[in-house]
Design goal:
single chain; about 160 residues; Alpha-Beta Plaits; 2 domains; four-stranded antiparallel beta sheet; about 50% helix; rod-shaped; HLH_DNA-bd_sf
Length: about 160
C-alpha cells in the first residue's frame, strides 16, 4: 500500500508540473504577442516622426528656393499643385516656368504641347520625381515677341495646374 500512495503522489506532482508548464507556456505566448504589438507600435511611431521631420526639412528647402535660377535650386516636389511663371533674370526674353503636380505618364507630352502651342522653345530643363510627385523647371524662349500672351498659353495648357 505504501507503494501505491507514493505513485499517486508522484502522479499528482507530475500532473501539477505539467499544468504549471502548460500555464507558463500560455503566459509566455500571451506576453510575446503583446510585446510584438508594442514593438510594432513604437516602430510605427518612429517612422511617423521621421516622416514628419523629412516633410518639415523639405518645406524649409522649398521656402528657401523661391526665385533661385541656379542648377543648385531645390528640385524636390512639394505636396501642393502649383505653376509659377516669371521672367528670367539671367536670360532676357526667357520665361522660367515651375510646375509641381502629381506624376502621370502623359505629363511631359502635355508640357511639350503647351510650349509648342505658345511658339516657345525649351532652352533648359530641370525635372525631379519623388514619391509620385514631380517638379519641372523649364526655361522657355519664345519665337514671337508676344511674351505675355505666350506665357498665358503655357499656363493654360498645363493641365489646369
Amino acid at each position: 500500500m505504501g507503494n501505491s500512495s507514493c505513485s499517486t503522489a508522484e502522479k499528482k506532482a507530475e500532473a501539477a508540473s505539467k499544468n504549471h508548464s502548460e500555464a507558463e507556456r500560455r503566459r509566455r505566448k500571451r506576453i510575446n504577442t503583446h510585446l510584438a504589438t508594442l514593438h510594432k507600435a513604437s516602430l510605427l511611431a518612429e517612422v511617423v516622426r521621421r516622416l514628419r521631420e523629412l516633410k518639415k526639412t523639405t518645406a524649409e528647402l522649398a521656402a528657401n528656393d523661391t526665385n533661385s535660377e541656379t542648377s543648385q535650386s531645390n528640385l524636390f516636389p512639394t505636396e501642393c499643385d502649383e505653376l509659377n511663371l516669371c521672367h528670367s533674370e539671367t536670360e532676357p526674353g526667357t520665361i522660367k516656368a515651375t510646375l509641381c503636380c502629381e506624376d502621370r505618364p502623359e505629363l511631359i507630352s502635355e508640357i511639350t504641347a503647351a510650349v509648342k502651342a505658345a511658339e516657345g522653345k525649351v532652352v533648359r530643363a530641370e525635372m525631379a520625381t519623388v514619391g509620385g510627385r514631380t517638379k519641372s523647371i523649364l526655361w522657355v524662349q519664345f519665337v514671337s515677341p508676344t511674351g505675355c500672351g505666350a506665357a498665358a498659353a503655357v499656363k493654360g495648357g498645363c493641365g489646369g495646374v
